[in-house]
Specification:
Largest interface: A-B, 55 and 61 residues
Distance between the termini of chain A: 43 Å
Distance between the termini of chain B: 50 Å
Helix content of chain A: over 70%
Number of strands of chain B: 0
Order of helices and strands of chain A: HHHHHHHHHHH
Radius of gyration of chain A: 23 Å
Largest sheet of chain B: none
Radius of gyration of chain B: 22 Å
Number of helices of chain A: 11
Shape of chain B: elongated
Oligomer: heterodimer
Helix content of chain B: over 70%
Number of strands of chain A: 0
Chain lengths: 231, 223
């Protein structure tokens, strides 16, 4: 029983044979990651600044876009872009479609993070800067954003991780990412060993990021430790 | 313009497939409800184990939480789906999806609750000890109620995210909303069903997103 399981899940030979295929998939995923994280952050910054704006048309537009894209599962958005847009005559390269769909979802969540951060800067900072004769653009760029951006490191890292993880949905529209190629490999060797290897690769990349994100989360203090030990 | 209406808003086709789509919606809602119920229950289990258990148990809980925060949901679903037959566990795609998403909900919920535990003021622990509260009553009556309130916004966000993850079930042929829309689309060649699926998703999530805005505003007023 144990040896059968080992043969199915941890067959090293099957892993070695299919590794080149998985490596190709990893490179594809990595290309998507490198594009969508900066694109998402940039889009999020634009959306967040608008959503936190005191002028109502900008605010409605920013919030509207953020909430619209927060309403759909990323997979649904990807499927609409890939399968439904061609009927409009918009035939995007599948890679471009995936980047577009993921950057839009990611951008909405980044936008929400930036909006919260900008709004958390006290109003006195805006008024003080305006009293010094700075124009709105300058107030935002020189006074508000530097203070707002300092607090978003943790959430932005966390959302970048979520966005990178979401790229696995590329496999569902037949894009050759790590997960897709692992499934193909699984079909070649008829055992789940390549999937186990793919999961291990995902863990090797994402676990360090999880730990990094955790460093920005509060931990219970000494009093809690004492209380739980002092039975 | 007429062509767009014909392709994307073929009302006749939408009307015909509405029963199937509503069945899909039912599956989506059932998976979501099960995942939220199991996931949150497990999140409390993890938090209690982490707080009152020994060092080994706490480390195991942390490992579980970190692994399920690191793996993409779709990877968990696909690996489970293709692996379970090898260990003689014949569970359906429906329950595979419920299991995978519940583990993820539990991991994120556990982390949210732990952040809540961390935010309980330290004086309360000293006070509880001076009252002679043991570990379990301390958790049950002092720590968890406050941690729950603090973790609530994060838990709600996570619950929305996990509910969106149900669409991933379409990859392993769970007959939920997305896969119903896709299969009818592939038979008829019309994207109208994708439009309908999109509208139905909007029907589920728009109220949730709106609700999260309301909660946010309430908390803001108090602060």
């Amino acid at each position: 029983m144990i040896s059968e399981l080992r043969d199915a899940f941890l067959d090293v030979e099957a892993m070695i044979v299919t590794f080149p295929l998985l490596w190709q998939g990893l490179l594809f995923s990595a290309r998507v990651w490198i594009l969508i994280v900066p694109l998402g952050i940039l889009l999020g910054l634009v959306l967040g600044i608008n959503a936190a704006s005191p002028s109502w048309p900008a605010r409605i537009a920013g919030l509207g876009v953020i909430d619209f894209f927060r309403c759909f599962p990323p997979l649904v958005l990807l499927i609409v872009v890939v399968y439904a847009l061609p009927f409009l005559g918009v035939r995007l390269d599948p890679f471009v479609s995936a980047v577009l769909a993921l950057a839009l979802t990611g951008g909405a969540y980044f936008g929400e993070i930036f909006r919260g951060a900008i709004r958390s800067v006290p109003r006195g900072q805006w008024e003080g800067a305006a009293a010094l004769g700075l124009r709105r653009q300058q107030v935002l760029r020189l006074v508000v954003l530097p203070q707002a951006l300092r607090q978003v490191v943790g959430p932005v890292l966390g959302n970048s991780l979520e966005l990178m993880k979401a790229t696995a949905i590329c496999s569902a529209v037949a894009l050759p990412d790590l997960l897709r190629n692992a499934q193909t490999a699984q079909g070649i060797v008829f055992k789940p060993a390549p999937l186990v290897l793919a999961a291990a690769i995902y863990l090797a990349i994402f676990l360090p990021i999880v730990w990094l994100v955790s460093r920005y989360e509060p931990k219970p203090g000494r009093a809690f430790e004492a209380a739980r030990r002092g039975d | 313009m007429e062509q767009i209406a014909h392709y994307y808003f073929n009302l006749e086709l939408m009307r015909q497939s509405l029963p199937l789509m509503l069945e899909g919606l039912g599956v989506t809602v059932s998976i979501s409800a099960l995942v939220i119920a199991f996931g949150i229950a497990a999140a409390y289990g993890l938090t209690i184990a982490r707080a009152v258990g020994g060092r080994v148990l706490a480390a195991t809980v942390v490992a579980f939480i970190d692994v399920f925060r690191a793996l993409p949901a779709l990877v968990v679903i696909v690996v489970l789906y293709f692996s379970l037959p090898y260990v003689d566990l014949p569970i359906s795609p429906f329950w595979t999806t419920v299991l995978a998403l519940s583990c993820i909900m539990a991991a994120y919920g556990g982390e949210a609750l732990w952040t809540g535990v961390a935010a309980v003021p330290s004086g309360q622990f000293d006070a509880a000890r001076s009252l002679g509260l043991r570990r379990w009553p301390l958790m049950r009556h002092v720590v968890l109620p406050q941690a729950t309130r603090l973790a609530l916004p994060m838990m709600t966000n996570r619950a929305i995210a996990v509910t969106k993850g149900t669409a991933l079930g379409s990859v392993i042929a769970v007959p939920e909303l997305m896969s119903q829309g896709l299969s009818i689309q592939s038979i008829t060649g019309s994207p109208s069903l994708l439009t309908l699926a999109t509208v139905l998703y909007l029907g589920i999530f728009a109220p949730m997103v709106a609700l999260s805005r309301v909660i946010e505003r309430r908390l803001e007023v108090k602060a």
